[in-house]
Inverse folding.
């Protein structure tokens, strides 16, 4: 029985897409850290007062627990 | 188990309906999300947040879970397999990521809706809530990438798929 042909390797479109995804994710992280200046994650809308002007000012917020997860 | 041609057609029709429905539902959600991000009117904001929660929980989440499930059925019930071709594998990973982010995001959406439903919440508080635009727009981009992958089916087998294919001969 003949040996199977060798694996041709990962296709170019997968490699190029992977590089693009890594670059986009890194750019996004940099933008969020330095330009966006915002906290990305739980508690951005928490009534702790340390999230800048994103936090509603009235006591109404105190009745609502912030979500555990992140936010957009 | 490979599906019969008739069953495969039915499963494919269901999968396309669910997946494209997911994209359409997110598009509708984005319209409300834009209103939540840009409107200064308290009534509009209140309505937008409440509608966003309804769409997210009763349309987007069911469609996401159902299209993930129907995608698994399509992959495992046809010769494409789940791990044999890069386009299937990447579609699966992106769908799982999109679904997980969606499920996390629903907590934020419900939090916004809870505040919006409170009639004592002032207009200023509603305007300060913000939106989920980053995730919703990011989500629809991911879904469109999955759609393109599924339509074009670019060539390329994984090492596992290559080995399996040559085991058969």
């Amino acid at each position: 029985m003949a040996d199977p042909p060798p694996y041709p390797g990962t296709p170019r479109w997968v490699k190029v897409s992977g590089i693009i995804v890594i670059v986009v994710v890194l750019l996004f992280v940099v933008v969020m850290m330095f330009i966006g200046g915002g906290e990305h994650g739980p508690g951005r809308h928490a009534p702790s007062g340390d999230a800048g002007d994103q936090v509603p000012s009235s006591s109404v917020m105190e009745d609502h627990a912030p979500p555990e997860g992140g936010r957009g | 188990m490979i599906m019969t041609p008739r069953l495969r057609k039915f499963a494919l029709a269901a999968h396309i309906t669910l997946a494209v429905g997911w994209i359409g539902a997110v598009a509708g959600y984005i319209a409300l999300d834009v209103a939540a991000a840009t409107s200064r009117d308290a009534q509009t904001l209140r309505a937008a947040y409440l509608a966003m929660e309804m769409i997210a929980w009763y349309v987007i989440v069911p469609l996401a879970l159902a299209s993930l499930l129907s995608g698994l059925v399509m992959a495992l019930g046809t010769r494409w397999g789940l791990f044999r071709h890069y386009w299937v594998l990447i579609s699966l990973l992106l769908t799982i990521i999109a679904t997980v982010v969606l499920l996390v995001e629903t907590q934020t959406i419900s939090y916004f809706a809870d505040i919006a439903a409170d009639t004592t919440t002032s207009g200023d508080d509603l305007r300060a809530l913000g939106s989920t635009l980053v995730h919703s727009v990011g989500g629809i981009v991911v879904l469109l990438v999955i759609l393109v992958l599924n339509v074009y089916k670019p060539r390329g087998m994984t090492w596992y798929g290559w080995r399996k294919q040559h085991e058969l001969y």
Q: What stands out?
A: The interface with chain A takes residues 33, 86, 90, 104-105, 107-108, 110-112, 114-115, 118, 120-122, 124-126, 128-136, 138, 154-156, 159, 162-163, 166, 169 of chain B (CB under 8 Å). Chain B has a mean pLDDT of 95. The first helix of chain B runs from residue 5 to 38. The CA atoms of residues 65 and 99 of chain B lie 7 Å apart.
